[in-house]
Amino acid sequence: VTDRSLQRSMATSRAALAAIILALLPSAGAFYLPGVAPRKYVQGEQLMVKANTLTSNLTPLQFDYYNIPFCEPKNGERALPENLGEVLAGERTETSAYQFHTNVSRLCKTACRRSWTPRQVDEYRDFAAAHFRANMRLDNLPGAELVVYRDQSGHEFVSYRLGYSLAEPSDKNASNFYVNNHLRFTIRYHDVQTKGTRLQEIEEPGALIVGFEVKAMSIDHQFEGKWNDACVKKNTCELFTCDPNTGPEPTAPKLVLKTHQKMDVVFTYDVLWVHSDVKWASRWDVYLQMQWQDDEIHWFSIVNSSVILLFLSGMVAMIMLRILRKDLYRYNQLDQSEEAREEAREETGWKLVYGDVFRPPKGASLLAVFIGSGVQVLGMSCCTISFAVLGFLSPSNRGSLLLVMILFFVFMGFPAGYVSAIFCKMFKGAGTDRLKNTLLTATLFPGVVFLIFFGLNLMIWGDQGTGAVPFGTLVALLLFWFALSLPLVFLGSFLGFRRDTIEPPVRTNAIPRQIPEQIWYMRSVPSVLMGGVLPFGVVFVELFFILSSIWQHRFYYFFGFLTLVFCILLLICAEISLVLCYLQLCAEDYKWWWRSFFVGGATAWYMLAYGAYHYVARAHHAISLVSSVIYFGYLGMICYAFFVMTGAVGFLTCFVFLKKIYGSVKID
Description:
Blueprint: H1 3-9, H2 16-24, H3 27-30, E1 40-41, E2 46-56, E3 59-63, H4 84-88, E4 94-101, E5 106-116, H5 118-129, E6 133-138, E7 141-142, E8 145-148, E9 155-158, E10 160-161, E11 163-165, E12 177-179, E13 182-191, E14 207-217, H6 230-234, E15 242-243, E16 247-248, E17 263-275, H7 285-288, H8 295-331, H9 338-347, H10 364-389, H11 400-411, H12 413-428, H13 434-462, H14 471-498, H15 524-551, H16 559-586, H17 593-601, H18 603-618, H19 625-663
Helix pairs in contact: 2-14, 8-15, 8-16, 10-11, 10-12, 10-13, 10-16, 10-19, 12-13, 12-14, 13-14, 13-19, 15-16, 15-17, 15-18, 16-17, 16-19, 17-19, 18-19
């Protein structure tokens, strides 16, 4: 699969029906392993440089590249999104005015001369003051410049700044800002004829692009006489500050941004082709191996999580092998006297509530719906992480992660409806309202997420950000849900209600048993809060990197570490829910249904609190109220999904555990 064939296969309209097709078809072309789809360029071939959105590490908002009056190409067209995920991620691709030709280096080439109105000057000042950067890509590779930290502790590759100031970042005096109007593009290529190349499918000579660097400079260009736009086409513009043979003059003055004034800006650029020994399959390494994502930190988190897991596993083993086994043995002794058996029953509280432990809880139908939704999110997460860790979600396929998540969530509607129907039938028996249960399973979780997303989309649209999803795409999502997700939920629910009802291992008493007064730490709220501490200790390190990646528009590609953390998280959620459920029953409190779900999902509340702390500590320079609302809106959706997923894990673990131990008790 080549990028050109991928673009052809994805070239559909943005109407509602076309967006559905985009959601279904691009999975065949969007999944390719990094390094198996090279694009070869022959000598002198023209290259298309694409311009993406403007982003800043101070706000999650993205803006269109041409919100800034940059040079625009003649007959420039907006490139169609490659998949639905790219649209939802706010990616917008434009054709830029910068023209390259394979293996042809040029210096001081003029792109255009633009006259900015006072309003455009002020808007540029605002973007530059907010640290916005322009994102460009060539051959699907992001254009970036090397930034070395002031303390020399490391470096990273980031897109180039629109402008800069020599004063403090908080000082928005326009006289301190300089316009970056000269770009130096360094294109690193790998010759396919170089010894050691294993790309057998490429027979003709050519070049593979393995690096794309962009360095921005500020130059107040000077020219003689009256400006003539015809010189741009002929490449005959003579600038005193930029020589086509030697490049920009080192002593050239910088272009100062003049506030509230009309100003003319000449945009120029250099193109340098440099041979590199980097293989095509390794060209993304400089972007993914960031200094701020140190492997040692991830390994420390894995070791820390493993210690917590071993500690909990030891507690579970002690409960299962020593306490429960001993209790069951003594309880099931048939040759004991009735007095001895009654004494054995009184020793351990969990056996005293056998007649009430499977009594249906209040809000049983809603609990069944949440369990089904949790299974749906869990299945989506497992499948998505599996695809990512196997390398199918290459970062060069923008939006593929979101697209895959949506597809898997839709297909997991079948097990969601099935599980929800099973528990609803067990709770309610023959009097179950099947239609109500099925509709709630299909709409409650995705409906809440969609309403939050729709509200945030309105705010982004009002702020003129490119992250606003077009109305046609929203309609397409609804049609996609009605056409595929809803029928799958109904199919799973139909099969779930057809199967035999799960029978409790013990008979439920007609009269509920009175629950004794509980110690303060065994009450609902303290138990739930305690249950979320250890799972949060497992995920908070990865959560920090994920939030930083989202807020600062960086790549997150540590899916191997994420898989290990995810597996440990599920085990710890299951074990902590089991331990606390056992302790609750020992205290003769049989209302475990909802509490087990909340104990498993308690980690989401800690995630929400940590997200707020991250906002205050690292993202407190948000430039608008809209940015803050968007941050907490997306954080809330993530925590909501996390809550139903881990809650379902905790509940199902407790259910299987109790069904097993009470099924082992012999009751007269």
